[in-house]
Amino acid sequence: MTAGARIQLLSPRLANQIAAGEVVERPASVIKELLENSLDSSARRIDIEVEQGGVKLLRVRDDGNGIPAEDLPLALARHATSKIRDLSDLEQVLSLGFRGEALASISSVSRLTLTSRTVEASEAWQVETEGRDMHSRIQPAAHPVGTSVEVRDLFFNTPARRKFLRTEKTEFDHLQEVVRRLALARFDVGFNLRHNGKSVLALREATDEAGRARRVGAVCGPAFLEQALPVDVERSGVRLWGWVGLPTFSRSQADLQYFFVNGRAVRDKLVAHAVRQAYRDVLFNGRHPTFVLFLEVDPAAVDVNVHPTKHEVRFRDSRMVHDFLYGTLHRALADVRPEDHRLAPV
Ligand code: ADP
Ligand code: MG
Predict the structure, then answer these.
(1) Is 147 in the pocket of ligand 1 (CB under 6 A)?
(2) Which atom of ligand 1 has the smallest separation from the CA of 75?
């Protein structure tokens, strides 16, 4: 630090790179942001292409609403979003994104190309940035209605961050986990994932129960589905549905646990505690339960604006949510509970 240095505004590029430090950790975090944007744009089908674990190339192509040509440069600007306008929107935000930071951050640390076409437009338009000056050129391009974002050479201009990337396999595992989670959150959307030219996941949109179960099997493995109990309970406007793995399908790691609140993947202490309690007397010490669960509550009863990565939520009535979760799962597991524990209070 220079003593007595004068105060200066950061350049847009540096400001974006600093913001990127918080939200863009690795290829998996880029994919998360791009997929959330596609889902926010009402895409029905998303194709993801990855090379070298995502470090060399990440391409997400959707058939969503697209971006009007005149908005394309803005899409890459910081604090620019089409998703909220005022504080009241923020209070009941339903979109996955709303901070208007992701594309600006990603484009400051990669070579990014954004191509998009709306249904009203007669052609597609494209902007490119090279992580340099945050000024983008706009030019016509060929693309069906929807949006493609191509991210090349992640962290090419921030070697310190690049150094923290792990092996291609590790990075791809993280990335694939993000795709899995979102594929479970949105049964109604088709997902295709390719890595180094090979198909890894091919999920058609699932509109009925059989289709949803098929997707859970494809994402979590057929063994999970065979050894899971379906759950669907509603009480005073709160609904919990999904699949809970039988104790026989427990794991040595907590790696098959998916919990969604209003379609948003959530890792939450309160939720974890309720689940752990429900499984307490049916699981051996050190074993972890498996589950794919969806909680649906009034959006006004939950605050999602807690952290930029948005894995946490805050429930207005956390006690009620905890007890409802615990009670529902405890009852679902009643038949596999040893006789002398069956009368445990719910
Ligand atoms: P946020 O998602 O928080 O609004 P982003 O930086 O992720 O911020 O995206 C900025 C804006 O670019 C979005 O608000 C949206 O209008 C537009 N956008 C980004 N990706 C897409 C996409 N795949 N389809 C349509 N619009 C998109
Ligand atoms: Mg976004």
Answers:
(1) yes
(2) 12
**Quick one: which of 217, 235, 344, 228 has its CA closest to 281?**
344
Domain, as residue range, for 168:
12-203
Q: Is residue 151 assigned to a domain?
A: yes
| Interval between CA 113 and ligand 1 midpoint (Å) | 13
Counting atoms of ligand 1 from 1, which one is nearest the CA of 146?
Answer: 24
Q: Which ligand neighbours the alpha carbon of 146 most closely?
A: 1
Q: Which atom of ligand 1 is nearest to the CA of 64?
A: 24
The 10s digit of each residue's pLDDT in 309-338 is 657 788 889 999 999 999 999 999 988 876
In a domain? residue 112: yes
- Ligand of minimum distance to the alpha carbon of 89: 1
Strands (E), 205-332: 228-235, 238-245, 257-261, 264-265, 291-296, 302-303, 314-315
- What CATH number is attached to the domain comprising 312? 3.30.230.10
Neighbours of 339 (CB within 10 A): 6
Complex-level ipTM: 0.98
Whether residue 3 lies inside any domain: the answer is no
Which residues are paired to 141 by β-bridges? Answer: 124
CATH number at residue 135: 3.30.565.10
Q: Does residue 235 share a domain with residue 138?
A: no
Question: Ligand 1, atom 10: nearest CA belongs to which residue?
Answer: 75
The answer on 160 and 62 residing in a single domain is yes
pTM to 2 decimal places:
0.89
pLDDT digits (tens, 9 = 90+) for 3-47: 788 998 888 888 888 887 777 999 999 999 999 999 999 999 999
Separation in Å, CA 262 to CA 94, 293, 304? 9, 11, 10
> In this structure, are 259 and 148 located in the same domain?
no
How far apart CA 313 and CA 301 sit, in angstroms, is 10
In a domain, 230, yes or no: yes
Contact (CB, 8 A) for 309 and 23: yes
Cβ atoms of residues 162 and 27 within 8 Å: no
